[in-house]
Amino acid sequence: MTDLKRRSLVATLAATPFAVPLLTRAQSLDPPSKFKQVSSRERIRQRYFPNLVLTDHDGRKLKFYDDLVKDKIVIFNMFYAQCEGICSPITRNLVNFQKLLGDRVGKDIFMYSFTLKPKEDAVAAMKHYAHMHKVKPGWLFLTGSVDDMETVRRKLGFVDPDPEVDKDKSNHIGVLKYGNEPLERWGGCPGMSSPEWIAEMLSWVDWPRNSTTTKETSAKAKANGGGK
Amino acid sequence: MAYISKRNLRKEKEKQTAANNRRELIAAGFKRRDLLKMGLLTSAGMLIPKKGLSARPLNTRGSFDDDEPNSPGTTPFQDLMPRLTVLQQVPLASLNPQPTQQPQPQFGEARTVAHQAFVDFPPQRYYEMSEQAGTALMAPQGELPPQTIWGFNGITPGPLIVERYGVLGHPQDGSILLRLRNNLPADNGGFGLPSVTEHLHNGHTPLESDGFPCFFMERGQFYDHHYPNVYAGVKSTHQAQGGDIKEALHTLWYHDHRIDHTAENTYKGLAGAYILFNEFDTGNENTGFKLPSFGDGQNPLTSFDIYMVFNDKVFDSVTGLLKFDLFNTDGILGDKFLVNGKIQPVLHVSPRRYRFRWLNTGPSRFYQHFLLGPNNSTKSFWQISTDGNLLERPVQVNSARISVAERVDVIVDFTNDAGKTFYIENRLEQQDGRGPTGNVLGAGQGTKILKIMVDGPPVTDNSVNPALIPPGTYFYGFPTTTDQERITRTFRFERGNGQWQVNGQLVGPCSAPPRFAIKRNTVEKWIFQNNSGGWQHPIHMHFEEFQTLTLNGNPPSSTGLITRGRKDVLRLEHNMEAKVFFRFRDFVGRFPIHCHNVVHEDHAMMVLGVIDDVGDNKTQP
């Protein structure tokens, strides 16, 4: 990135109603080599995990990457509290899944449900939803500004290429995404897969066996204040 | 389309620079509303419109957060198209431990089922490959950094396996054993799961060797695949003849089939080609069907049978490295088009006939290949096969449509074209993972993928001229489809709440009992339905092939000879219903049927069944 001063950029921008004149400017700022050496883990962070501030069902403000994703095994899905259709069975399914994983949820494995309706799903509504389903620690319901939640949804691929279908929120409910952030292993599966099957899929991205990574990473996750 | 003509190079550069600008603007603390105020961003869009990298839709709310620029520009038609490296046999003595019928977990073999055909068809020849990381240059020197790929023997496409059936009556002579080792690294460089299972696509293979998605091997393990290379019917309907010659297969391929992770692993390079000759399709243009000679597969003066592996990829605009959209569930489209591992290469040919074997390894794009000639002319050619199977005779066509995993063999006659230049041009419009729009672009409007220059020296051509073949069957002819079926089953491919489903159900778990059971040595008729509104699916069945009985209620003869061909991938187009005929013969075991848009496949569009000696009566498994 450049250390371009905001003021000089404004001047450049103001003089140019279109992007094209900007090109010369940007090109001259490029390093001599055409490509930058950035680690794949860092590129994944840049592409998928903007460090937006989200709010969990206990009202805590958490940064999407720093607090929620970094160094952890994570499971993502979408929900909204008033969802009549498939949300409840999927949430119930995930409750059973959480039970199956036992105390690893909240240690090195974290579950995140992002609201599709941030205007409706304030902290209280999410807290009520979490209590109603008896979810345990380590599984957070998350809300934020309309723009931020839309960004998270799109970044994580809960989208349909048909804009009309995409408008129907229920079309983003059915899928889970999961992965191991430091190991850069990611996948996705239907939310109604059996808890045992989801656990098996998650085991494919788990820490290598007999490795000390698990302990180290969970310790680090705790130190980072990763949601409990 | 996103190919790079000179005109597009400029556009490409603009997009890339615009993306760099955006990053700078973000870094400089600008908000979207600042840009709006400055007139740099419209409320509906962004600086530069996005063009299909993946199936992700445009953000209708105008946020630029999603936007990723296209791949960096590359200069087309600089690199030579590589010929696939032919895999060499290894002596049995070099295999340690020696292969056995029973699995050898004590030595790290991942296989859990004994080879069922090891005694009937003992292996005659041996091969060994290591699945490992390697380095590949995909663009002209200096235009993209060296790519870290995963490949069979560290190359992509993997080595070409060239094998032969035993002559009729001697089926055991075709039998081989391939040992695969998983030497993949734990560090995947951003995508890929180092846990693999290899599928010989189109093979009539005992199912413990077929690459069942749940039969994977972990790092450090090996897996012995026994490929008898026999014609279907060898242990049932055509035992006396040593198999039904009408079931001969010639153009196959192999690829990773790891459940839930096939898309990223094949995209990362784990795919290769496999061909089978016999006493009819001999590889020698002086004998049998007299198809253009294979030679040694390398020498341009003697090798006129060329395998071409097509795929499309995206490269990160910042690092220049292969990029895989980790959270995509719809389908991934690349904006760089590769043939045998090189982006838009060049092939030099002599003025004579060639056999090209075209394979599309995906992940999600469908192609319709034309031969673009001088002055936007279109050169016709002869299609001789569908998937691994020869048609009854060559059919003259102007194009061939190839969805993921499909293969088409063609004869192109360059005899009178000395000095001319042609391009393999994909004219099928596709904008997202849903499948092609159905729009076929005009000559010169599509994507030029391979440049073919007819500037090689004149060489003798003893291959058959398809134009002079008298009417009637020239190759094997098709097996009959009049046998009585034991059962008719229906498979509905659909989408619900963003999940892919077959008959309303999801795949898995691996440990679950099979969804349905086919009785060995029986005939079944299957109905494939596409209800998934707007989507197309290349449907693939392992182990056996089908013949199409009806497409949307019409017999395939009404749409020409090609749709009657035997196939193992059915292009299930919008709202299509197809009825197909299967014979399940000779071997038993677990198999999948699935969508071969590998992104759909990885997201549960799969059914895991079994072939046994009992069968079941589920009509909608």
Properties at a glance:
heterodimer, A: 228 residues, alpha/beta, Glutaredoxin, seven-stranded mixed beta sheet, 41% helix, 17% strand, disordered C terminus, B: 621 residues, mainly beta, Immunoglobulin-like, 4 domains, eight-stranded mixed beta sheet, six-stranded mixed beta sheet
Q: Would you tell me the overall average pLDDT of chain A?
A: 82
From the 3D coordinates, which CATH architecture of the largest domain in chain B would you assign?
Answer: Sandwich
- Oligomer, anyone? heterodimer
The total beta strand count of chain A reads 7
Strand arrangement, major sheet of chain A? 2-1-5-4-3-6-7
SS content category of chain A: alpha/beta
Number of helices of chain B: 4
Q: Provide the CATH superfamily of chain A.
A: Glutaredoxin
What's the CATH H-level homologous superfamily of the largest domain in chain B? Answer: Cupredoxins -  blue copper proteins
Mean pLDDT of chain B: 90
Distance between the termini of chain A: 34 Å
CATH C-level of the largest domain in chain B: Mainly Beta
- Percentage of helical residues of chain A? 40-55%
The coarse silhouette of chain A is: globular
Structural commentary:
The complex is a heterodimer of chains A (228) and B (621). By secondary structure, chain A is of the alpha/beta class. Chain A is built from 10 helices and 7 strands. In chain A, helix 5 (87-101) crosses helix 9. Residues 1-32 and 211-228 of chain A have low confidence and may be disordered. Chain B has 621 residues and is mostly beta strands. Chain B has 4 domains: 1-70, no CATH class; 92-308, Immunoglobulin-like (Sandwich); 324-468, Immunoglobulin-like; 487-612, Cupredoxins -  blue copper proteins (Immunoglobulin-like). Chain B has 4 helices and 32 strands. Chain B has helices at residues 6-27, 32-37, 262-267, 598-602, and strands at residues 125-136, 147-152, 158-164, 176-182, 198-201, 222-227, 251-256, 271-277, 305-315, 322-323, 336-339, 342-343, 346-348, 353-360, 367-372, 378-379, 381-386, 389-397, 399-402, 407-413, 421-426, 447-453, 487-496, 499-502, 517-519, 522-530, 537-541, 546-551, 569-572, 577-584, 589-595, 606-612. In chain B, the strands form 6 sheets. In chain B, strands 9, 10, 11, 12, 14, 17, 18 and 20 form an 8-stranded mixed β-sheet that branches. In chain B, strands 13, 15, 16, 19, 21 and 22 form a 6-stranded mixed β-sheet that branches. The interface between A and B is large, with 74 and 69 residues.
